[in-house]
């Protein structure tokens, strides 16, 4: 059984968003065949499967984000809301807003996060993570609700670099890759070891067809997230995604062991590319 509590659920969704963000960024830069440059996307949340041990009985909500590819990097504005109904009858709602930016060389990542839920006051924290040669040392610095500085390993990857590696691996026919990743989260949960299993490309068959966003094929990608330095064989959570040729994710599922949460794209639109000439 995975360790489940609302804060951990929030962090898992944030990890999923970081992955979605980086996929879109890669689609706009590293792979010229992609039709995605910048876009708005919305996802609908629903309860997936649950077993007899699950305390969460139902899930609903929505996710929306706006990605803008800039000349020196990528910015993302994220807003999400979800509601959890527990077997006790208690209902918990969680809201989050995040502004993130990553430089095009994958050496600097900044973030501004606001979170609140139905049982705690709003939490606000900002910060950045930086890697050599942009800095002499690899570190992450926080202000606001968390006043902390983390020393990072030099082999850690920001989301764009990590996801570029996944897409490279998928194009080369590789089935597995692993690495350390910095996610947009609290100091305690900022560094994960992420292990990705990449499936065989499949045809995309869905009633949700969005011009310029959805494509005819996708890779099923299953990523297991482990707390950095842990010796546990069971991940904190897993995220299964349908990754399209152009870097867009149309569906993803977060697996907590006792239950799963499903997010499906509901609508999206492309944003005009920035002219960097």
Can you describe this structure in just a few lines?
13% of the residues lie in helices and 51% in strands.
Word description of this protein:
With 277 residues, the protein is mainly beta. It has one domain (6-68, 82-94, 154-271). It is built from 2 helices and 15 strands. The protein has a 15-stranded antiparallel beta sheet that branches. A hairpin with a 4-residue loop joins β4 and β5 (108-117). The longest helix has 24 residues, at 6-29. The N and C termini lie far apart (53 Å). Residues 1-7 and 22-36 have low confidence and may be disordered.
N-C termini distance: 53 Å
Largest sheet: 15 strands, antiparallel
- List the total number of helices: 2
Residue ranges: pLDDT <50 for 5 or more in a row?
1-7, 22-36
Shape: globular
Alpha carbon gyration radius: 18 Å
